[in-house]
Model the fold of this input.
Amino acid sequence: MVRAMTAAAPSSLYDTAVLTGDQLACRRGGRLVFARLSFEVGNSQALVLRGNNGSGKTTLMRLIAGLGRATGGALKWNGVPVDQDTEAHGRRLRYAGHLDGIKPAFSVRENVAFWAEVWNAPPDDVDKALAAFGLTHLSGLPARLLSAGQRHRVALSRIVLGRAPLWLLDEPANTLDDTALAALSRVIADHRRKGGMVVMASHGESLIDDAAFLPLDEFARHANAIEARDPEASAA
Done:
């Protein structure tokens, strides 16, 4: 069991919560990607997923986000399997994956405001999100004119909308320059100071100084050993 570490005492912004993975296993395309994977992360904690390509970082991220299903084990929020109430689980998280989900015809502000409305975020959250990632001066620009790095900053800005205790960041440093990386690091630190939790896939960027690490290669080896013994065997 990998347990994340706490950077600071949780504030009262978020209720006390713990996300756990218990002996998780997952298949993708008929292949067992990982097995016997367990972790725990709670308020103000950060867990960084590490591993080679194909080790299951994005697969695990999508599983936690409710976009995939485990073939073994259980994912729980405060001890309750998240699949008992998928809508509630969706409300408690923000997921920034590889696809930016930007509408090219919308302005930068309109893109962020769209998600603020979806999540019933306070109106001033849009301005805060734009400012946090240095996008205020681009707010009226159509998204189709943005660079790859600017588009990624718009996508990342959505994580601060509303009050979601769990942030899932899949290799968020991609395409970001040093200024944007510093902004992201500050946003993550602020979220954790307020009691929020972060799960992040990374190839080694130092965005979080005191995170715990989950070595996906280890659990990929468990999966390979299971498949080698019996390709039809249960992952559990």
Remarks:
- The chain has a mean pLDDT of 89.
- Helices lie at 57-64, 86-91, 108-118, 124-132, 148-157, 178-193, 216-229.
- Residues 178-193 form the longest helix (16 residues).
- The chain has seven helices and eleven strands.
